[in-house]
Amino acid sequence: MQTRTLSRELALLVLGQCAERDRSAAVNDTLDVLLQKALDSLMQHWREVLDHCAGDLEKAQQSLLDSELQDSPNAGDAAPVREHLRDSLTSAEQVLNGLSASLELPRLLALADQDRVREEAMRRIHLVLDSRDTIDQQLDGVMEGWRLSRLPRIDRDILRLAVVDLGAMKTPASVACSEAVELANRYSDEQGRRMINGVLRRLQNATV
C-alpha cells in the first residue's frame, strides 16, 4: 500500500516538471533531479501562498481593529472581517500542511523500498506521457461543460494518474479514487478538490 501511494505521489511531483508539449525532453533528467526540481517548485509556491495569506491576515486584523475603535461600532460590520480573518487562518493552515507533506516525502522515500517505488513511479509517469492525448480525451468526456486544459497543472496530473490507475494499473476503483482525493487534499486548493471529486465520481461511474 505504501509503495503504491509513494510511487503515485512521486509520479505526480515529477510529472509537474515534464513539459506539456515537448515530450521528447520529458525524462532527460534523472528521477532525483526531477524530484528536486519539483520540491523546489513546491517550496516556492508555498512561500508565495504563505506571503499572500500573511498579507490577508494583516489586512483583516487591521480592519477588525478599525471597526472596534469606532465610536459606535456596529456588530454587523465586524462579522465579515472576522470571517475573512478565519478564512485567512484556514488558508495559512493549509499552506503549512502542504509544506509539511512536501518535506516529509524525501524521508518517506528513504525509509521505503526505493527501487520498487522508483520503478512504479517511472511506470506511472511513462503511462501518462505515452497516452496523454487519449487520457485527456477520456477526462474531457466526463468534465460536463468544462475542459481539462482549464484546470491547474497539478489537478490535471492528479486526474491523469487516476485514469492510469483505473486502466493500465488495474487498481480497484475505490482505492484509485480515494488516493487521488488524498493527493488533491495535499496539493490542491478547495476549488480544485471539489472539481477533482466530481470528475472522479463521473469517471468511476463511466468505467463501471
Please summarize what this structure is:
With 208 residues, the chain is mainly alpha-helical. The protein contains eight helices and no strands. Helix 1 (2-15) packs across helix 4, helix 1 (2-15) crosses helix 6 and helix 6 packs antiparallel against helix 7.
Topology:
Elements: H1 2-15, H2 31-69, H3 75-111, H4 114-130, H5 132-140, H6 153-166, H7 173-187, H8 190-207
Name the features.
mainly alpha; N-utilizing Substance Protein B Homolog, Chain A; 8 helices; 208 residues; 2 domains
Provide structural commentary.
The protein has 208 residues and is mainly α. It folds into 2 domains: 1-113; 131-208, N-utilizing Substance Protein B Homolog, Chain A (Orthogonal Bundle), CATH 1.10.940. It is built from 8 helices and no strands.
- Which structural class fits the helix and strand makeup? mainly alpha
Distance between the termini: 23 Å
Number of helices: 8
* Rounded average pLDDT: 78
Largest sheet: none
The ordered H/E elements are: HHHHHHHH
Which stretches of 5+ consecutive residues score pLDDT under 50? none
What's the shape?
Answer: globular
